[in-house]
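HOLO CASE FILE
Compound: 3-methyl-2-oxobutanoic acid
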Amino acid sequence: MSTEKEIKRVTTKTLAFLKKKGIKISVLTAYDFITASILDQAGIEIILVGDSLGNVFQGNETTLPVTMDEMIYHTKAVTKGVNRAMVVVDMPFMSYQLSIDEGFRNAGRIMKETSASAVKLEGGVRVADTIKKITEAGIPVMGHIGLTPQSIHQFGSYRERGKDVEEANEILRDAKAVEDAGAFAIVLEKIPASLAKKITGSLTIPTIGIGAGVHCDGQVLVTPDMLGLNVDFHPRFVRHYANLAEEISTAVKKYIDNVKNKEFPSDEESY
Ligand code: KIV
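Model generated. Tokens follow.
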């Protein structure tokens, strides 16, 4: 493998290679077949079926209500649209917190039923043994530390994590624990760029940042956020690469107008 263009299917080995070469890794979320196909054909390396679907697809306040069955349903649609990217699936709240065996069984269920390539779970030291058990069975695991949305009620807010020394050291310990447990990559969410830089420099596995600055080995965003579909949500770490909410609204208004004025369908659009 000499250049990114030659990558056939993105695997954990590809990601390790990209980190070694200093080539940044791009990650976006998808929850459906069409979006996943577009992202894949555009060349994204990782498609995350995030439990953020609880917010942006289901309209919930938090990710907590998302179930295993829902993650599996969405992932089955996503994997059908993907030929090249690695598909990583979030393990939803309470699918791995109860016990190591429960987490192991649910990770196995995701792999058996969805054609995905890896699972992601939130937490550091406290989930390290679960990560170890899952990876030892041959299932790649992506870690997720910093602001972990499944713990929102414990944190009390979506504020940045790791600003004071004590919390920063805790996040550093979490990062090391996730790597030592065998994870192939780790998401760093909403932590200071300086801390993300330190973690990225001290780990051999790639770090994927969201609100964690430019020094991470890759970046992830929630697709409806970066496409400007989620208009009420604009934290500073989200860049709008499009304004699809406005475009869709314009198109729909035009359609309504055409229907009302009998301008749609035309003779050519009729049988
Ligand atoms: O659920 C999700 O989309 C995520 C990303 C924000 C990293 O976990």
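CASE NOTES: Residues 244-271 form one domain. The CA atoms of residues 120 and 142 lie 5 Å apart.
CLOSED: yes
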